[in-house]
Amino acid sequence: MKAIVCTKYGSPDVLQLKEVEKPVPKDNEALVKVHAASLNAADLEYLRGVFIVRLLYRGLLKPKNTILGSDIAGQVEAVGRNVTQFQPGDEIWGDLSYPYSFGTFAEYVCVPENALRLKPASMTFEEAATIPTAGVVALQNLRGKRPIQPGQKVLINGAGGGAGTFAVQLAKYFGAEVTGVDSTRANSA
């Protein structure tokens, strides 16, 4: 199978498209054919090797897991013997960031059962792949310790980014009066 591989920390230029062995699911995992994977800040942090504490988990000098990608949408192809919530053919979305080992920038990936959710039939794979990190971060920040209230004025800083676009939509859904701001300069990865 093909995968985007990162053998050293750096810019996106260090990524390579390579043939790698197709994974085999463990007892508590599902083998997923990847239909869509989204890129988010966690993937870029992993690629660049930032946050020294995380390097202890990910590899100090070079990445332990060479296939990046944490957000996924795809179809279950096979399941381990202890998997009960999913079966081959199920369309799913999920998050393989910490404590899992990333790996969604490949044609197939093995995913622990508890990291997956069924994809709504009304949602495309591309739409579903954006939810695990950006959508959840936005929801947690809007409905966390001090949930927004209908009619409340909310400023979304970074409204044009992954989590920001979700935050604007969710805040409006919850009845807030939303003002969104973002940079006008081109930001590079």
TrEMBL record:
Pfam families listed in its UniProt record: ADH_N
Entry-linked InterPro entries: ADH-like_N (IPR013154), ER (IPR020843), GroES-like_sf (IPR011032), NAD(P)-bd_dom_sf (IPR036291), Quin_OxRdtase/zeta-crystal_CS (IPR002364), YIM1/Zinc_Alcohol_DH_Fams (IPR050700)
GO molecular function: oxidoreductase activity; zinc ion binding
Residue span, Enoyl reductase (ER) domain: 10-189
Protein name, per record: Enoyl reductase (ER) domain-containing protein
Source organism: marine sediment metagenome
